[in-house]
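Hi all, a correction to my earlier message: I attached the wrong file for ARAID factor. Here's the right sequence:
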Amino acid sequence: LDLSNCSLHSVPPGLAEATAAIVLDLTENPLTTLPNGSFLGFIHLQSLAVPLPLECPGGGDAWQDVTVDRSSRLCQGQRNPCNSSVELAWPCPENSVCAPDGPGLIQCLCENPFHGYKCLREGTFPMLLFGGILGAATVSLSLLLWGTQRRKAKTP
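and the right structure:
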């Protein structure tokens, strides 16, 4: 994806939909910062060129090779932060596994059969119980309203 020399002053909002990009060029743009969530989901990104004043997203540790020339910085070979020997600041909770989510970013995915907040719930969502209670409440409320409001309905 070549966005070089497009007069971008900030990261375009549509860039979030290009998570399948492997190569991205943002050079020759008057960018001043790269917001923290700019490359969330860019797990396939292997080569990123940014203007010289900017650092590689995720820092130098998120990339295998950072090359600087006179006008740009080239970040190559995105590293998997889950496989690093550096201790994670926010380790994943019990019953979950670490997965990369972009340069220097991780996400914690629940292992089967766990789900929910911090992967604390085991099993599947009780769909039958939820549907039964919702259906009973809807029918009861409908009958109540029909019974109390039908006398106000005018008949021709």
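Sorry for the mix-up. The two ends are 68 Å apart (CA to CA).
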